[in-house]
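Supplementary Note 2. Why include the ligand at all?

Several targets in our set were suspected to adopt different conformations when bound, so apo predictions alone were not considered sufficient. For every target with a known small-molecule partner we therefore ran a joint prediction. The input for zinc ion is given below.
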Amino acid sequence: MAQGSTALKRLADRFSRMPGIGRKTAQRMAYYIISLPKEESAALAQAILDASEKVRRCSVCCDLTEEEICPICADGRRDHGTICVVEQPQDLLAIERTREFRGVYHVLHGAISPLDGIGPEQITVKELMARIAAGGVKEVIMATDSDTEGETTALYLSRLIKPFAVKVTRLAYGIPVGSDLQYADEVTLSRAMEGRRDM
Ligand SMILES: [Zn+2]
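The joint prediction is reproduced in token form.
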């Protein structure tokens, strides 16, 4: 990194905090930004501000949206009695791509991971339980990842939900153990959804 250029170093430091970005990539990104015409870098900065100002969590399912209630939760043609629980907004998109699921979702924004200090309070468990307690839910499908954290979370939630006499199912993973749901192809995901089993 250029000596004496604190602005460049600060920019690279910011990038290096992003998921999956190492120090070298962060430096490349910083050099790329300063090579851009002024309008381009201003548009990028504005896009970042817009996204962080406008995007928020749906007050029902916690997916990211620009509305108070996301389009899926607001859709009267969907089955609001079937809730598919996913870890991340990207997982929801992956299931939507199959075009087979007609229920609604709940986005946890993570998974329980005691080693990383992530407990039920750090993800949207409270919000999910409030939806179930409000009634009208027939089935909750656990579509968390098939790694240790995903399994722990599914098991934890199924125990919490049990007293409500709501059917709890788990995706039948043809997906290799330990893999991220969001990277599964559509056929695999459709099968996993169809073959879901009781927990
Ligand atoms: Zn929603």
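The chain has a mean pLDDT of 92. Residues 58, 60-61, 63, 69-70, 72-73 surround zinc ion (CB under 6 Å). Comparable summaries for the other entries are listed in the accompanying table.
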